[in-house]
Design a protein that fits this description.
about 250 residues; disordered N terminus; mainly alpha
Length: about 250
Amino acid sequence: MTVEAPDDTRTRILRAALDLFAEHGYQRTSLRQIGERLRLTKAAILYHFPTKEHLLTALVEPLVADLETLLDTAEAGPAERARRTVLEGWVDTMLTHRRPLGMLFHDIALITRGDTYHRLMRIAMRANNLIAGPDAGRRERVRAVQAVAMCSDPVVFFTDVPDEVLRADMLDGVHRLLDGAPPGDHPAATGDGGGAASGRRRPGRPRAMSPEQVEAARRMHAAGSHSADEIAAALGVSRATVYRHLDPVVAK
């Protein structure tokens, strides 16, 4: 006879709740519906989660915990790497929890009560400070807040974009905000002529990719899941640009 693990029922409840919240929304999903899907009584649900809000909080907890761990790591590491650690780690964390985030987008206000809300506020302030850097002025602090949004919001709005493509685009955008154009993306470097001072670029697709986009292109090509044309379309560059950044042997 198989003995049910102590937390197995709780895990099943969370999975069913996530499915139903995604299908119908938090407000339109009842504990009775969750119980019916699992063939459990409402009392069995209440044993693990006294209220529906407790379910929502439990679904948010892994995301909150991972963000706290990320910031602990960034604060413990070299100060000069803190910003990059936060930015890349934040994007990766958001993508890891992509499905719960999509579900929570419409109901996130419901967690504004209690400890979870205060933890999220502390997380946001810590991230802003690490991204802005020591002795940051108003403009740097504003851009740090914008950077956190750029590393979060696209995960909810671009649900049809593959993880590796969205990751590259998000990091490309946030580096442009904080540092200007990524290395190799200036007019002089891309052969557009006129130098950076002219501020003019040729029309059409960019001829260079950011380091994050190059990494995404190589992963997609190595996995064999996308053709060169599909990679180019996903990253918004030409096919020739994709081939120029792939390993010459692999690209054949």
